Amino acid sequence: MNPEIPTETHPGRAPRQRRRLLPAALCGIILAGCAGDYPQTTFQPVTDFGARLNDVLGHAFWWMMGILALVEVLLVYVIVRYRSRPGQEEPRQVYGHTGLEVLWTLVPAVIVAAIAIPTVRTIFAIDAPPADDALVVDVIGHQWWWEFRYPQYDVVTANELYLPVGRQVHLRLRSVDVVHSFWVPRLGGKRDTNPIPVAAAEDGAGVNHLTFTISEPGVYSGQCAEYCGTSHALMRMQAVAVDDEAFEAWIRHMKTPPAPAEGSLAARGQEVFMRSPCIACHTINGTNARGVVGPNLTSFGDRWAIGAGVAENTPENLAAWIRNPQALKPGALMPGTEGGPGGLPPTNLAEDEVEAVVAYLQSLRGAPRPQGVASRSSSAPME
Amino acid sequence: MARATAPTQRAAIAGKRSSRGFGETLWSWITTVDHKRIGLMYGATSLFFFLVGGLEALLIRIQLARPDNAFVSAETYNQLFTMHGTTMIFLVAMPLGVAFFNYIVPLQIGARDVAFPRLNALSYWIFLFGALFMNSSFLFGAAPNGGWFGYAPLTGAQYSPGPNIDFWALGLQIVGISSILGGINFITTIINLRAPGMRLMRMPLFTWMTLVTSFLLITALPVFAVALIFLSFDRFYGTNFFVTAAGGNALMWQHLFWMFGHPEVYILVLPAFGMMSEIVPVFSRKPLFGYATMVYSGILIGMISWGVWAHHMFTSGLGTIADAFFAVSSMIIAIPTGVKIFNWLATMWGGSIRFTTAMHFAIGLIAMFTIGGVSGMMHAVAPSDLQQHDTYFVVAHFHYVIVGAIIMIAFGAIYYWFPKITGRLMDERLGKLNFWLLFIGANLTFFPMHFAGLLGMPRRIFTYPAELNLGTLNYIETVGAFIQAAAVLVFAWNLLRSWRRGAPAGENPWGAYTLEWATTSPPPPYNFARIPTVRSREPLRDDGDEIRELATGRPPEDLHMPSPSFWPLVTAFGVMLTFALFMTELWWPPLIGVLVTAFGVVNWAFEPAH
Hints:
Helix content of chain B: 55-70%
Number of domains of chain B: 1
Low-confidence stretches of chain A: 1-19, 31-35, 377-383
CATH topology of chain B: Cytochrome C Oxidase, Chain A
Strand content of chain B: under 5%
CATH class of the largest domain in chain A: Mainly Beta
Distance between the termini of chain B: 11 Å
Structural class of chain A: alpha+beta
Number of domains of chain A: 3
Order of helices and strands of chain A: HHHEEEEEEEHEEEHHEEHHHH
CATH topology of the largest domain in chain A: Immunoglobulin-like
CATH architecture of chain B: Up-down Bundle
Mean pLDDT of chain A: 88
Radius of gyration of chain B: 24 Å
Strand order of the largest sheet of chain A: 3-2-1-5-8
Oligomer: heterodimer
Largest sheet of chain A: 5 strands, mixed
CATH architecture of the largest domain in chain A: Sandwich
Mean pLDDT of chain B: 94
Number of strands of chain A: 12
Largest interface: A-B, 99 and 96 residues
CATH class of chain B: Mainly Alpha
Number of helices of chain B: 20
Shape of chain A: elongated
Structural class of chain B: mainly alpha
Radius of gyration of chain A: 27 Å
């Protein structure tokens, strides 16, 4: 981080023409392929950070296309024009031409400089220190799920990252086990979460940073981008970008989640949950569940998926997950009802208890979603 | 032993083929110190592993053909992609290059063999045993599963407690020793054993690139060896080099790995550039354009390759200064590389191009490597690499380099030098089928990967959800992979068929001007009856008759060739055993391997020369 470096651009500026040309050009090549909707596309960033990356890429892209076209056209010309003809004499033996060789050393050097200068400027721009009022989120990689802590609000959640639109976000990234990489393509580039000792994390040594400001509300999907073991492919996440008001409401909801109605199946589920081994690893705000090894389950019912994206958050899937997590997610550390990985004891939940816990976890919901974006509950009615 | 081999050797020196039993033939191969036979063994071994790595690739592609596929399990998939990468880099691309160093370089410089023939045999046997050891992990269902890059701390004992990573770390340690020995051998050979008059600036480009590559081998592989020793010590003896919880540093592994890993890229690609610079002039009927520039750009690429490693680490958070430095240094490497491409084009310009199979592959290299080059330039733009890194965009990039350049021209080089090696031509019709299948298949496989990556597909994932809409692209890629497999089958058929029934080639079927084409095809064990004197860069053009006469005449009566030896194999087995027995996690079993090694070395040292 270098605070002296001036940044000539500011967040939220109007998108430049080039930014739209790049995806247009690439899409042109795969016309058919662009008909679909790509939740993890890098071509449509919704942050200043992502836009900057595409700007500098767009700049290099056209130089590269020029060189590629030149070489391929020359190649085709040469193989058509100079193909051997019957009875042809030996061609003139040319051993080189200093002028030409200097030319095709210098011209690429100039092109390299033309790409290098905006590259270096962008490197410094995207690493500029965050604003004082930025929302700080500690992103902590686990095998194979994401923990998100909001130290300014004393809120912790997992796999679904709530962020406000229009306010700068400052992610502080680290890992507790192996190297992971935080990547939500529409929010911009990825950054590794490196494992560091807890003591070091407190004074910031080895912590990585990302700063960006989101300009559009929406739900943006992402996943771990650094190979991190068996279920690396199943370490997914979603970023939920909402307006300021909704964000504050979400914080309030997280701090004081409603309790299940008395006498309901969910209430029985809560009672089962609180006397089972679940609480050794999971926290649910407003209850006695205070475990910190596994994902925080506050407002779990709102999440789009279970197990960091292994399956849709439906009662059936959740029950299957509680019975045998490893069947859905190889290598998962959570014990099932009849057996645990690595010698962990099983939870021993009976079938009716599983059902109750499912009802309880699904009842933990009600957080605000971005306007126009359906909450999970509308697509998966329950009870 | 002396009784068994002495007559064999005499018969060989006389250039005759005696009818020998299977046992004797086998014995003559496992005791051989002839660079040509060792080259053939390297070639055969790497082609075998090419099939293994290719099969792994097909299984990967079947799994990814559809979203949410369950063809293989996560664990199996992780083993497959790890072994695909490790095999293709260390057991295919590297030894295939070494096969050509072995066979071609002594012939190109007018030498009778390499500087240290027995060391050469030792290199091969160590490589073979290391490769077999690593792949034996499949028999235990415990193939390496940490990626070819083996990032710590995932590969440490805590997160990978099984034997999988032991097979990987120890296997690569063994294979690495072979590469270092080979590097030493080829530097010495090229510096010391050139024919009279073959000044450095008269050496063929392939020999030059072998020299540069050999320097990279002896400087880069030790870095990897150190990293692997750290990792192994962490795993076996509880040290904490990469154990972050105990104050170790995960990024140190990445630095050490890529300090080796990036020169490694040029260890693979520089020999390919050398092959290009032999093939393009011959089939354009023109000398190489800008010889000196081609030499210097090769040296420059080799040198700069030491200063770009952290472009593999732009997302690890090195800070602005490091990111800026490595972005710019990585871009600079494009300049000498670009010069090479333009010089090849200029060599073809104004020429009389013969479209042999070898030339097809050379042209294919220019077409595909340029794509790999420009996408590489996009990675060097560090900020946008934050999006591209660890996605299929990168997979597309390096496959355009490895398949589009290295494998492409390796096929070309086989078609080009096969007549010298066997005395027979490979079938040109099958050859062109081989080329077109590979060219179409490779582009169909790797081009869509650019888009898959930029549309959000990370690497090394065993599955992806249907919602990402990446199914179509992946399906096309899988179809392409099977077309490439068809290309390989055509090649294998052509190779086996031509070996026995190819049209006789003569000494110099292509009308080339470098020394290897002066001697007979296949060359006698001593290569040249009398070592010719070289007066130019194109010796067969300027003094062809004289050199051919010297090369193919009667060898001198007192010609002494190095005698065969069984002991390099024993020594190599001891080296493999030493490392393999570390897996017992006891202190004494590796000593058994050390004893076997010592037994081999002592017998080697005191073996009487014949």
